[in-house]
Amino acid sequence: MSAPELLPYLLKVNGALVLFCAVYYLGLRRLTFFGLNRAFLLFALLFAPTYPLLDFSGWLARTAPRPAELLRLPAEWSGLALPSPTAAPAATDWLLVAYWVGVIVFGLRLLIQLLAVRRLHRQSRPQTLQSWFFRRLSGPVMPFAFWQTVYLNPDRHPAAELPAILAHEHEHVRQWHTIDILLAQLSLVFYWFNPGGWLLRRALHENLEFQADYRVLQTRAHDAKAYQYSLLHQSIEHSPTNEIVCHFNFHLLKTRIAMMNTQPSAPRQLLRYIAVVPLAAGLLFATAASTAAPTEAPVAALKAAVIDVEKEAPISALPPAALAYIVQQYPGYRLIGLTEVRANDGSNLRYKAQIAFGRRPTDVLFDEKGLPLQTGDALIFLDGKRISQAEMNKLDLKLIESTSVLKGNAALKAFGQDAASGAILIITKQNKDSPEVRDFVRKYGIVNTPASPAVEQLTQLVVSGQGLSTNDLQGRLLLVNGQEASVEQSKVATDQLQSVFVMDAEQATKKYGAKGAKGAVLIETK
């Protein structure tokens, strides 16, 4: 997962943990359905880090207006100077550094705790008491269970209390409570900064003790008051503790005794668990809504100029309508060459005919059906006002919020015959929310879909000359000048780079088949 994708992922995960924590503490904690509470807490710990990775955007896929055909932009426009990809926000970098430092610290903490348990295991000796198997420890160690073993120093407890203590710890063993504890500890390693993670771990430890207490009193011949006194006796002793195995404290003791004296919850209280359904569905819906995109959308930025790809074609490929136009408009012509022109995603087929007419060759551009296309200057709008090419050349890219490029019927429909060669619609950051811009955007139906952080990163790695790695591609197909290429070939000098285009999986699969199942990166050089 790349750095730009990590922070949104962490925000989603930790937001989910806080929501599940609120539902538990406000609605479920005081219920005596300990098995269901355990299931809810485990579901929260597993669902939170998983749901942002699930792709349900197809449920919300919507049809957007067909994108305008892309206009070939002049490469000499100085306002299109690309920023260096190394100029990442410093605050984001420091947040990521702090996050990974925390992960390392808490990871080492968990490792030390596990090693401490291993050391105790090696120091212990197997022993049996009234058919209860345990490993005998020496020194001031609280009773605990880890995995499928109970650890106890019987010399620190009255003989009459040992059966109840062993029964309680063996309930932890029988129900595999160590799995819950390890999952909660692992969650803290990655979400150490989230109060919801800490509270969920505390709730999980607490509920496991409730569950063990309940089973001991229900299935074993132990007097409830004597059992509670034995817990009180253990709380008086002060012994070194390891959070991964020992959760005994005075506050938890009071809560456990109070829960043992609580009447069983009424069956109708089970309806509270239905809350998990809309909560999980809402999180999935929110994620799907944030990732769903129109099936087709226009280009929103000009960080990499969109350049047409040209390929020689036989003269016989020229549509009959184009040939008829040439005969009529260029009497005495001689057709000397034909070129196929496409956008670098393979769309928008046109034909460029080279005609020997007069003293020098003339290029005439036709659409796919053979109708002539005008090649005059495009209309340029800045914040809804028309400007000249010279004014556009003076623009600072840092001030631009978004750019839409219209061509063909889309441009003609919006602006009439003046836009026969297309239109460039530029919106600046300063005026993006102004009434004039809102009216302009609404009038011409401009849809701005910013590139994803992953696409931005791929584009900047190429345009900076750094090139791509296998990890950057994430399985995407790499094409350089229309040919499959290795990652080494993605390193192109800035002055030799003509264009970069990142195709999504759907587009790439349609064009390249299974090879494009995860998308494609198209690089064109000069």
Note poorly predicted spans. 61-88, 292-306
Walk across the major sheet and give the strand order: 5-6-7-8-9
**3D shape:** elongated
Query: Main sheet, how many strands, which sense, barrel?
Result: 5 strands, antiparallel
Percent range of helical residues: 40-55%
Number of helices: 16
Instruction: Say what oligomer this is.
Output: single chain
Q: Which class do the helix and strand fractions yield? A: alpha+beta
What's the rounded overall pLDDT mean? 76
Our measurement of the CA-to-CA distance between the termini, rounded to an integer number of angstroms, reads: 32 Å
Q: Tell me the strand percentage band.
A: 15-25%
Please compute the radius of gyration using only Cα atoms. 34 Å
Domain Peptidase M56: 135-260
Transmembrane segments: 6-27, 39-61, 94-112, 270-289
InterPro entries: Beta-lactam_resp_regulator, Peptidase_M56, Plug_dom_sf
Protein name: Peptidase M56 domain-containing protein
Q: In words, what does this structure look like?
A:
This protein is α+β, with helices and mostly antiparallel strands and 526 residues long. It is 43% helix and 17% strand. It is built from 16 helices and 17 strands. The strands form 4 sheets. Strands 5-6-7-8-9 form a 5-stranded antiparallel sheet, with no helix packed on it. A hairpin with a 7-residue loop joins strand 6 and strand 7. Helix 1 runs antiparallel to helix 2 and helix 5 (177-190) runs antiparallel to helix 6. The protein is elongated and about 115 Å long. The two termini are 32 Å apart. The model is unreliable at 61-88 and 292-306 (pLDDT under 50). Keywords: Membrane, Transmembrane, Transmembrane helix. The chain crosses the membrane at residues 6-27, 39-61, 94-112, 270-289. Residues 135-260 form the Peptidase M56 domain. InterPro entries: Beta-lactam_resp_regulator, Peptidase_M56, Plug_dom_sf. Pfam families: Peptidase_M56.
